[in-house]
Amino acid sequence: MIVGTQIVSMGLCAHTYGAYFMDDRDPWFDRMRARFRLEHGLTLGIAVAGLGFVLGAWIVGTWVERGFGQLSEERLAVLAATLVIIGTQVFFASFLLSILGLRRT
């Protein structure tokens, strides 16, 4: 999931660079650029990372209730960490895409 998110982010950044700096025209890209803004990406990134943090807090709370014994939610902990990482990637990729679009004509 993490690598896939990074690959999609890189592809979007490369496509954005091609559209803005190499005059590569794509009707799909123009429609998506008109529809989605920086705020959409930031909101999505915060929501995904926030879900990961909430899940992580729930795991820690459950662990505390059980007296700091054996942690039995390893799979959920991996999911929580994955969500935090993906949310962070989406958040900062949104900034990069927005920065690339600043010099468009």
TrEMBL record:
Q: Which domain of life is it from?
A: Bacteria
Keywords in alphabetical order: Membrane, Transmembrane, Transmembrane helix
A Pfam family annotated for this chain is: GT2_TM_C
Transmembrane spans? 41-64, 76-102
Q: What is the protein's name according to its record? A: Low-salt glycan biosynthesis hexosyltransferase Agl6 C-terminal transmembrane region domain-containing protein
Limits of the Low-salt glycan biosynthesis hexosyltransferase Agl6 C-terminal transmembrane region domain: 13-101
